[in-house]
Write a structure and sequence with these properties.
Low-confidence stretches: none
Strand order of the largest sheet: 3-4-5-6-7-8-9-10
Order of helices and strands: EEEHEHHEHEHHEHEHEHEHHHHH
Radius of gyration: 20 Å
Number of domains: 2
Oligomer: single chain
CATH architecture of the largest domain: Alpha-Beta Barrel
Strand content: 5-15%
Helix content: 40-55%
CATH superfamily of the largest domain: Aldolase class I
Structural class: alpha/beta
């Protein structure tokens, strides 16, 4: 698969852009485990052109994480063009336009998925950004605004006509937010459309190697993008890549080893240590208090602790911890179960 001249190989796996999640530390962690391309948190065009410090910091990328995409959002074409030019100076490999964020503070103000209710403006923004920069420009969007306007098949052609280099589709409408199941049938229809000649990237509910294999096989998408499935599980990219290549779970490589050996990949202790490294990376990037708050969603969502009996109180204590020492004491005690 190629985006412009960027060769991403066969059946690549991407880390989805997620606000307050895909900071540089998490991107590097996912890159370590084989993510083929990573995306920044989304960047507000309005805040970027006003040089808001918290926003401009999101443009910080490392050569070690390449290929990397900076994603921008907004509803004003002029601001989006100016923001894209600023992003280009940060030297990412790709610039992506967010037409898919469903949250009220974005979509409710006419940006993100809100532009699914104003297609002419969406297309104007896309054309102008494509024309303004020399980097490949891609788009991420949803099936439509709601079940009565699942317009993605026609919209995909229109976006392609604007000159984008690839299209990522989340298999839900804006009205669904993140509820229900992602519908990949229309993603497959877009990919099978003979008039489409740019790569199509599928996104939504890919939480296991088996599901990923199924999505590639059933829809023919060029790449799969993984979002919430990476929370507290950055090694999911390595799990999936192994399964795509061999058809067997990666854990099978280590079944004859001591599961309590911390050096054994995919043991409980090994996974716990990866989570602890995420905590330390977050604290190092921010500070102790903010770093712990930032990482809580990973600790809450990780499948590592799933199935442990009577775990509710421990989980609550873990999410209330305010220092690294307190948090690690709680996490280390879980090893005793």
């Amino acid at each position: 698969m190629k985006i412009g001249t960027l060769d991403l190989g066969s059946e690549p796996l991407f880390l989805a852009p997620m606000e307050d999640v895909t900071d540089v530390a998490f991107r590097m962690m996912c890159k370590r485990f084989g993510a083929d391309m990573v995306y920044t948190e989304f960047v507000s065009s309005d805040a970027l052109i006003r040089h808001v410090n918290k926003t401009t910091q999101k443009l910080h990328i490392l050569d070690e994480e390449r290929p990397v995409v900076i994603q921008i959002y907004g509803k004003d074409p002029g601001a989006m063009v100016e923001a894209a030019a600023i992003c280009e100076e940060a030297n990412p490999d790709v610039i992506d336009i967010n037409f898919g964020c469903p949250v009220k503070k974005v979509a409710g103000k006419g940006a993100g998925a809100g532009l699914l209710r104003d297609i002419p403006l969406m297309l104007e923004i896309t054309r102008r950004v494509v024309d303004a920069v020399n980097l490949p420009v891609t788009v991420k969007t949803r099936l439509g605004w709601d079940d009565q306007s699942r317009i993605i098949v026609d919209l995909a052609e229109s976006l392609q006509d604007c000159g984008i280099a690839a299209l990522a589709i989340h298999g839900r409408t804006r009205a669904q937010m993140y509820k229900g199941e992602a519908d990949w049938s229309l993603i497959g229809e877009v990919k099978r459309n003979p008039r489409m000649n740019i790569p199509v990237i599928g996104n939504g509910d890919v939480i296991s190697p088996e599901v990923c294999r199924q999505r590639f096989d059933e829809t023919g998408v060029d790449a799969v993008m993984i979002g919430r499935g990476s929370f507290g599980r950055p090694w999911i990219f390595e799990e999936i890549r192994h399964y795509l290549q061999t058809g067997t779970p990666i854990e099978s490589l280590f079944t004859n080893k001591n599961p309590d050996d911390i050096t054994t990949p995919y043991s409980f202790n090994w996974k716990v240590d990866i989570l602890k490294q995420q905590v330390l990376d977050s604290v190092r990037r921010l500070d102790e208090r903010r770093g712990i708050v930032h990482i809580r969603r990973h600790l809450a969502a990780t499948p590592v602790f799933k199935g442990i009996p009577n775990f509710r109180e421990t989980r609550i204590a873990m999410l209330r911890a305010e220092t690294v020492e307190e948090l690690f004491q709680i996490i280390d005690s879980i090893r005793l179960f």
